[in-house]
């Protein structure tokens, strides 16, 4: 099998797994207990918190552990909206973008039932939010703006340095879904109030993520769950020490290898793109004019070649059409639809994503498999 689906998830790095093992059955204390078992686990959790904070340039107290980026996004958006409503703030507008992950879009949409006003902005043909579109939406008093750093289908980056200024000038809070961005490119928290991270997108274990919550000036949220008040009252529940330790190590590895990974991964990606262009005259690169993640290759195959049929003829190749959440769906990717693609064009699009453990021979084999698949069609 050739795995070219690193944007849906990454394998847990062996180095990360090694660090996790003892925390399952040797050092099993509850990190919230006061005795020595608990203290040891708590120290490991705090070390991991610092490793994650370092990756994104935060203080460790600003990192709140969650079960993943889905929960972090829900907590950021619903938590902020509900807090401001509770203290009597009159702003109700919540702004986001049509190409966001479902968990952001659905969190924003769901707030309508609670009296908020969701506003979902369109993108251009390359998947970028136009700063003028954002400015216009912020003419009305706005509570929160949620913009992803990098898209999980196309790898397209939003222009955060410019967009974040507009959000701050309008006096709104800015939340950034960094699930795909963190650990893959350098990140900044300048003008960012809340940011979501996911461990399994950066070679850590699944089931753990974090929300960055700015302390200066302090961003306040209402928690989603009632309970023991762990994580500074924002996320009750016993922390899963092995997962937290793994996430911390994954963050440290990502920081250490950042520039090596960027160079290696974008080199392989460019190699693959070069070969695909030869194999499929007329193939198009989606998001071509936008800045993109190093491993991103979302392509539109020439007319008459449907992506799902190619995938069916190349079962040894793990790639996808849309995101993993909606892959089983036959409806076209809403991300590509938002970029103005017709259903027919979207049905020809394939998402290939390259990562740290992809080899040169994986790329060659993938090209051969695609060639055979198209010949069989
Ligand atoms: C994967 C992903 C999520 C969801 O993260 P989980 O940790 O799997 O819940 C959210 N946003 C983006 C952009 C993602 O790629």
From TrEMBL:
Which cofactor does this sequence's record say it needs? Answer: pyridoxal 5'-phosphate
Q: Which InterPro entries match?
A: Aminotrans_V_dom, Aminotrans_V_PyrdxlP_BS, Cysteine_dSase, PyrdxlP-dep_Trfase, PyrdxlP-dep_Trfase_major, PyrdxlP-dep_Trfase_small
What keywords were assigned to this record?
Answer: 2Fe-2S, Iron, Iron-sulfur, Metal-binding, Pyridoxal phosphate, Transferase
Q: Which Pfam families match?
A: Aminotran_5 (PF00266)
One term of GO molecular function: 2 iron, 2 sulfur cluster binding
- Could you tell me what reaction this enzyme catalyses? (sulfur carrier)-H + L-cysteine = (sulfur carrier)-SH + L-alanine
Transmembrane stretches, by residue range?
none
Limits of the Aminotransferase class V domain: 2-365
Among SUPFAM superfamilies, the record links this protein to:
PLP-dependent transferases
EC?
2.8.1.7
Chain coiled-coil ranges: none
Tagged with keyword Iron-sulfur: yes
Class of enzymatic activity (EC top level): transferase
Q: What does this protein do?
A: Catalyzes the removal of elemental sulfur atoms from cysteine to produce alanine. Seems to participate in the biosynthesis of the nitrogenase metalloclusters by providing the inorganic sulfur required for the Fe-S core formation.
What family is reported?
Answer: Belongs to the class-V pyridoxal-phosphate-dependent aminotransferase family. NifS/IscS subfamily.
Write down the PANTHER family for this protein, in alphabetical order.
CYSTEINE DESULFURASE, CYSTEINE DESULFURYLASE FAMILY MEMBER
Recorded protein name is Cysteine desulfurase
Q: What is the lineage of its organism?
A: Bacteria, Pseudomonadati, Pseudomonadota, Alphaproteobacteria, Acetobacterales
């Amino acid at each position: 099998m050739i795995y070219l689906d690193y944007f849906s998830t990454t394998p847990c790095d062996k180095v990360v797994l090694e660090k996790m093992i003892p925390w399952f059955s040797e050092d099993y204390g509850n990190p919230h207990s006061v005795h020595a078992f608990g203290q040891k686990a708590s120290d490991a959790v705090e070390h991991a918190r610092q490793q994650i904070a370092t990756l994104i340039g935060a203080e460790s107290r600003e990192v709140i552990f969650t079960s993943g980026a889905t929960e972090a996004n829900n907590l950021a958006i619903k938590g902020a909206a509900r807090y401001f409503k509770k203290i009597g703030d009159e702003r109700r507008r919540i702004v986001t973008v049509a190409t966001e992950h479902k968990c952001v879009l659905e969190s924003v949409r769901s707030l309508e039932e609670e009296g908020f006003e969701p506003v979902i902005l369109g993108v251009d043909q390359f998947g970028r939010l136009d700063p003028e579109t954002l400015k216009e939406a912020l003419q009305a008093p706005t509570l929160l703006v949620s913009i992803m750093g990098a898209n999980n289908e196309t790898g397209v980056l939003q222009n955060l340095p410019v967009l974040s200024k507009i959000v701050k000038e309008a006096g709104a809070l800015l939340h950034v879904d960094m699930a795909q961005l963190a650990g893959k490119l350098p990140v900044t928290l300048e003008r960012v109030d809340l940011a979501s991270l996911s461990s399994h997108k950066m070679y850590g274990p699944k089931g753990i993520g974090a929300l960055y919550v700015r302390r200066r000036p302090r961003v306040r949220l209402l928690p989603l769950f009632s309970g023991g008040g762990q994580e500074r009252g924002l996320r009750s529940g016993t922390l899963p020490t092995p997962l937290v330790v793994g996430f911390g190590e994954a963050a440290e590895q990502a920081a250490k290898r950042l520039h090596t990974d960027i160079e290696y991964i974008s080199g392989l990606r460019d190699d693959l793109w070069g070969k695909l262009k030869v194999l499929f005259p007329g193939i198009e690169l989606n998001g071509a004019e936008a800045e993109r993640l190093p491993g991103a290759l979302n392509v539109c195959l020439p007319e008459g070649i449907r992506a799902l049929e190619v995938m069916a003829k190349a079962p040894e190749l793990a790639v996808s059409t849309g995101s993993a959440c909606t892959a089983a769906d036959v409806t076209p990717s809403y991300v590509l639809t938002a970029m103005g693609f017709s259903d027919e064009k979207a049905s020809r699009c394939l998402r290939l994503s390259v990562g740290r453990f992809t080899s040169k021979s994986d790329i060659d084999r993938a090209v051969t498999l695609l060639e055979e698949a198209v010949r069989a069609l």
